[in-house]
Amino acid sequence: IALLNVWGVGDSLPKSQDRLFNPQALIPPRPTISTVQWVTGTQYITPADMDLLISGPDRPPSKRMLAQHAAEAEQTRRAGRAGANKQAAAAAGAAGDSSEEGYWAYMQRQVQERTEKLGLVGDNMENLEQNSASWAEEASKFVGKQKRGLATGLIKAKFGL
Questions:
Q1: Same structural domain for residues 90 and 110?
Q2: Which of 30, 67, 74, 86 is the most exposed place for a label (fewest CB within 10 A)?
Q3: 113: in domain
Q4: 79: number of CA atoms within 13 Å, CB side?
Q5: Where is the composition biased (Low complexity) (predicted)?
Q6: Chunked mean pLDDT (size 10), the chain, 161 residues
């Protein structure tokens, strides 16, 4: 009786209709990278490329992407309003003052913008420094743990434990 359960009674199983691969699906092209780029790490893949590779072109946008698009649309709408207000003020003031900024005002604005950008770069460098320091600390902890494991393994092997 046990052999009948293991080997069956000679009936063939019906062919499964399940498919693991859809031959009609479009496969996106593989990203190409040279060996030098791979070794040096200079080739980056964007999140959009990664989304396309993982989920294909028919993936619906995520909630985060929808929220980001809504925020960008709101910001564009506000900028459009502010631009319309500036144009109206410039048209009203065109009779008396010139609407163009002077040379020194332009230079002052450029220095201010560059100072802000340098501040952002400085903040990013500080974050990078903290991240690399924490990574180096974690790497040294890992190496120490591996050394301890190797030493205890050698001692156990030597004494037959």
A1: no
A2: 30
A3: yes
A4: 6
A5: 81-96
A6: 57 77 77 73 73 77 86 88 65 51 82 83 82 87 91 86 73
